[in-house]
Amino acid sequence: MTPEPSAQLLSAADYVAFTSAVLSSVEATTDRWLESGVIDIDSHRTGGLLELTLPNGSKLIVNTQPPLQELWLAAKAGGFHFKFVNSAWRDTKDGREFFSVLSTCASAQGGQDLRF
Q1: What is the rounded CA–CA span in Å between residue 24 and residue 20?
Q2: Cα(73)–Cα(7) distance, integer angstroms
Q3: Inter-residue contact 53 to 42 (CB < 8 Å)
Q4: What is the C-alpha separation between 56 and 70, in angstroms, rounded?
Q5: Does residue 6 fall inside a structural domain?
């Protein structure tokens, strides 16, 4: 049995840089979708919180948690916590990668295939 990889302890500056890159990437993707007519999705960012509103009014919320060095996702499917492991944000329960989980939740709530 192989042990689970441990979360990397990041400096405060690295944590901010890595989570800001994730939020910026999500924003850029939603902006492209909106501009190209893929889906009418609205994004609103305040500091470390990014709220995505889908056409049916449902929301996806990505939130940074600096004291825990986590990235959180709130969706209809539930709440997910991610830690930085092996250069990727991994779900603390099952190890799934953040963008994969976000894509699954966005697709379910948006009613079409959406891949971040």
Answers
A1: 6
A2: 18
A3: yes
A4: 28
A5: no
Compute the C-alpha angle 21/89/116, nearest 5°.
60
Residue 92 lies in a domain: yes
Check if the beta carbon of residue 43 is closer than 8 Å to that of residue 30: yes
Closest CA to 44 of 62, 57, 56, 58: 62
DSSP state of 66: G
Does residue 59 contact residue 87 with C-beta atoms inside 8 Å?
no
18 lies in some domain: yes
The token pair at 15 is 């944590």
For residue 91, give the H/E element and its range. strand 88-91
Residue 5 domain flag: no
Each residue's pLDDT tens digit, 65-99: 999 999 999 999 999 999 999 999 999 999 999 99
